Amino acid sequence: MLRIATRESALALWQAEHVAARLRGLHPGLVVQLVPMTTRGDQQLDRPLASIGGKGLFLKELEVAMAEGRADLAVHSLKDVPMAMEPGFVLAAVMARASAGDAFISNRYATLDDLPPGAVVGTGSLRRQVQLRARRADLEIRDLRGNVNTRLAKLDAGQYDAIILACAGLERLGFDARIRSRLDPPDWLPAVAQGALGLECLAARVDVAALLAPLVDRDTSLCTRAERAMNLALHGGCEVPIAGYAMLFDGTLHLHGLVGALDGRLLRAEGAGDSDDPEALGKTVAAHLLAAGAGDLLGRA
Fold first, then answer.
1. What is the distance between the alpha carbons of residues 45 and 34, in angstroms, rounded to a whole number?
2. Residue 263 confidence class, pLDDT cut points 50, 70, 90
3. Which residue numbers are catalytic?
4. Is the dihedral of CA 160, 161, 166, 169 positive or negative?
5. C-alpha dihedral (126, 263, 245, 94), degrees to nearest 10
6. Measured by CB atoms within 10 angstroms of the end CB, which terminus of the chain is less buried, N or C?
7. 167, 185 in Cβ contact below 8 A?
8. What integer pLDDT is reported at residue 298 of this predicted model?
9. Is-above-0.70 flag for pTM?
10. φ and ψ of 233, to 5 deg
11. In 136-249, where does DSSP find H-type helix?
12. How many whole angstroms from its chain centre is CA 32?
């Protein structure tokens, strides 16, 4: 039997069941069960995520369940996984990436540029906030927390003129029709590893890692390793506005990175490198950003 620890949101449950179905198909006879649980990140919805410890709050309870033997692995949106793993845990598999971009959602306006001055846009992401301010300084940006259904309900209740969500989450839950327009890289950069699923287990559980090995997507793994290495070199987390997106062409990785400040200033950098060493590319792009003054922006974000 294989037990998958997962958050209880509709999206997290979809992701965990997707992994469970893949595993059942790969390993006939394998019994796979979900172990749903609520995390601190799900419980504290009244404050911005960056102010209460960042996205790592979505992982802690799942890791405790694995450490205590109540679960064998956990399924995460890879963008929620801290750049440095907790001791004793590993990312055993990174699966093929879905849509990496962000979605513009509105009941009245088709695109971000169509919004009138003073329009209210909801997002809980500092990364999205800095890119919004750089592109449309005349908008009012308000914090937005909760699962996908909750955020859409707040939009429909008239609390916002538009909201920004990840395309991947909307598509996985069947909300494709709510996407009015897409904010795609490289012009608009997503969160590091957005759209990818990461499967975590105890480092000692080589048996679990072996079962997960067929789920590994090489291209997504290389791209997200470069993105995460850039973020780690910048000492980034949920508390600072960093974005990154890597693509693989003919054995060469191309990485775009961004660091912003809440006053609308943005720094961008890009680079290319051998796919054999994605971490080196991530560090190189981070160094370009730091040389351009990213340290100052991050300190004043």
1. 24
2. confident
3. 80
4. positive
5. -20
6. N
7. no
8. 82
9. yes
10. -65, -25
11. 148-156, 167-172, 206-212, 218-233
12. 25
